[in-house]
Amino acid sequence: VDKIDWSTWTCVLGSSVEGIWPLINEVTEVTAACLSNDTKVLATGDDLGYVKLFRYPVKGKYAKFKRYVAHSTHVTNVRWTHDDSLLVTVGGSDTCLMIWAHEPEGHREFKQCDSEESDIESEDDGGYDSDVTRENEITYTIKALSTNMRPMTGVKPHLQLKEPSVDERPPVSRALPQPEKLQTNNVGKKKRPIEDLVLELVFGYRGNDCRNNVHYLNEGTDIIYHTASVGIVLNLTTSCQSFYIEHSDDILCLTINQHPKFPNVVATGQVGDTGDMSATSPSIHVWDAMTKQTLSVLRCFHSGGVCSVSFSATGKLLLSVGLDPEHTVTIWKWQEGAKVASRVGHTQRIFVAEFRPDSDTHFVSVGIKHVRFWTLAGRALLSKKGVLSSIEDARMQTMLSVAFGANNLTFTGTISGDVCVWKEHILVRIVAKAHTGPVFTMYTTLRDGLIVTGGKERPSKEGGALKLWDQELKRCRAFRLETGQVIDCVRSVCRGKGKILVGTRNAEIIEVGEKNAACNILVNGHMDGPIWGLGTHPSRDVFLSAAEDGTVRLWDIPEKKMLNKVNLGHPARTIAYSPEGDMVAIGMKNGEFIILLVVSLKIWGKKRDRRSPIQDIRFSPNSRYLAVGSTESAVDFYDLTYGPQLNRINCCRDIPSFVMQMDFSADSCYVQISTGSYKRLAYEVPSGKQVTEQSQIDRITWATWTSVLGDEVVGIWSRNTDKADVTCACVSHSGLNIVTGDDFGMVKLLDFPCPEKFAKHKRFMGHSAHLTNVRFTNGDRYVVSAGGDDRSLFVWRCVHAPH
């Protein structure tokens, strides 16, 4: 039968049309089919009113298609005209006959379109803002496609080793020669290996490119937010965090279900690759914030990622918006995992789409120079653009946020700081300069109708970046956030009982009292990344971080908070404590380094002998020398006993590439240097003379080990590191384990030493791409990892093996 050349094809069965039948769980029948006269395109109609186009032949299950919504139910028949230019479809219960123009592939005829940009393209869009521009232009890459963070050259370690021949193999043992590789006298006599890592704390919040992503839970006793690929629930009484860690890539949006039938139900959308329903395509997770149980995973066609999610009034429907070129808008029945309707949202970026708080069928989307008012009608999505003509001189601006009022009022925040008031889809009023800068976020309080707005503003006596308005946006009260920033930029607002929860672009989450306007900072984080430097205290569970934002921050693990921060005025690259913990050395991107006294955080001394970034900085174990490694392929030595003028006494020369990591020997006589050409070298201190004898290097006991290179750690390099690298490592104080970080954002735990290739390991996910640094705290109680792309610090509790 398959070999017969049929004159026409209107059959819905057969091996050549197998792919037209949908997934089993879609209760639908394909009712009609018709093959075009050129035998290239098959059109079908089904019970749900969809008209679909497939490439013919449609072999294999679940073929790709283009889908068109028009008929209310049951398409009873479809036919092509003689030249395939038109498709005719007939509806059942709607008794309609529809005619569709068929555009051949590659052909795109220009048509006058009913879109916002056609009449305002030449107009000014109401102002420019760097944050809006950055957000509009950003493109997200999945972690699996990460490439080298550093410009490495040469052959990777696991490809350098040749397997020893039978003659070369040692006759009895392959154990590493004594003395020990690592000094381990600071841990106690009973050394126990680490079996596992458990995520205990996360310092950070994604506020730079997200919005509306901080919410109250449980009547205000908890808050929920996210960073990297982790959803975080913070109890405000105990400061304890709990985590949802089922996402495979960065979370971009978060919303909570407001309906009492679905308490603590949360939806989060993540970054993805192509929308082909594969493992790397974007997904939305619906989960319980208290139990962390996943209720539903919605794999979607939003290539690039999901940028906005919103629950309907009954809580049964979920609205999502994609970062794909069409900025697709999709409605889901999330409990069933079923897609109800989907449609092209707009040619320009959509920032937010939200259901009206009293509706399951009406929602509003806003974005670059547009606002659209949508209606869900059965399985069809209908939209109207906002009409400006009722207000003289009104022009369409870039819209950034949306809120709702009674009597079908909608409020949209603009890039210029105005708020537009719409009745249905018609503009009726403009609240001029509600904020002096962009209105990034708005929140509708369901119980009393009051509106909260958050914008970008310089703090002043009269106003602030946070405002609480009446139901009609006519009167307001402004709050100052007391962050100490020159400009406050609010990205998320949420209102509880007498409190307003605020998320800022600078990675702070602040609770503001409505009556007394008192500000309480709940969450701190680095505002710009990557975080490069990480230094753990020699005797306490506190640590320092240094980042591209020019700040050094002191974090306390038992207290679960940031203790202090210093603004250095320049991006910082590396940081280290002195052996006694009384001084801190910081290497800067501009080639300068600074030494601070820990007690006062006052500068003890600073020097700039290089013009390129300082990559690593280390105190010698005897506290006499400071080693400073830079991208100028040099390590400089300074004798601290000479005082704070910091004169260079020597340097290591002939280093084949930039310096990545450095470690001193236990006796302070040697330093090992990892370089950007995958070579590990040893030098004498302070002469800077290279040690070339391998037997001499093998006899050195190191005070610390942070190198990713060397025969002892070949096993940390995995097979799939063609384009990405192991970026950082740290051996525990016991000398029994090593933790590593890589360009894929993974933390790995291995035994040390691990001289065999592809060593057995445990993997821990959560970070975005590019882990920049990792360290054990004193006594090996915790591991701290620093994120590159996520600007976040993760604290992992070490689970030790039983005695």
UniProtKB/TrEMBL annotation:
Specify residue ranges for compositional bias: Acidic residues. 115-128
Q: Name one Pfam family in it.
A: Beta-prop_EML_2
- Domain EML-like second beta-propeller positions: 2-101, 531-798
Q: Which GO terms describe its molecular function?
A: microtubule binding
Give residue ranges for domain EML-like first beta-propeller.
241-511
Keyword terms of this UniProt record: Repeat, WD repeat
What's the name of the protein?
Echinoderm microtubule associated protein like 5
To which species is this protein native? Answer: Pogonophryne albipinna
Top-level taxonomy: Eukaryota, Metazoa, Chordata, Craniata, Vertebrata
